[in-house]
Amino acid sequence: MKNVTLVAALAASVAFYANAMTTEIDTDGDGMASLSELLVSYPELTEELFREMDTDGDGLINDEEMAIAVDLGMLADPDIDA
Fold first, then answer.
1. pLDDT for the residue 71
2. Which of 1, 15, 32, 38 sits between 20 and 30 A of 69, alpha carbons compared?
3. Residue-range domains of the chain with CATH
4. 10 has pLDDT over 80
């Protein structure tokens, strides 16, 4: 039971962090991060990696996709790695 609670807490923490990242990156206010918006914080981001992150294929990164990308290490924290 403790493991389930820990996993749920970690997942919620990553989702919250991803939401904060998306909000900070989202300059047009649509609630999503486009490739051009992400490139401001992640200039090394490639179109190929962006397409991998964009699991629903809509051309934008939503909070869930951002959380997955952070969890999988696809994106580094710009505050830590800068």
1. 85
2. 1
3. 2-75 (1.10.238.10)
4. no
| Amino acid in the structure at residue 64 | E
**At residue 81, what are phi and psi to the nearest 5 degrees?**
-95, 0
8 vs 26, higher pLDDT: 26
State how far the Cα of 77 lies from the Cα of 61, in Å rounded to an integer: 16
Burial class (CB in 10 A: 0-12, 13-18, 19+), 41: middle
CA distance 45 to 72: 15
**Which residues, including other chains, have CB under 8 Å from residue 66's CB and lie 6 or more apart?**
18, 19, 21, 22, 33, 53, 75
User: Residue 52 has which token pair?
Assistant: 């991998």
Tens of pLDDT, residue by residue over 13-65, are: 545 545 567 778 999 999 999 999 999 989 999 999 999 999 999 999 998 99
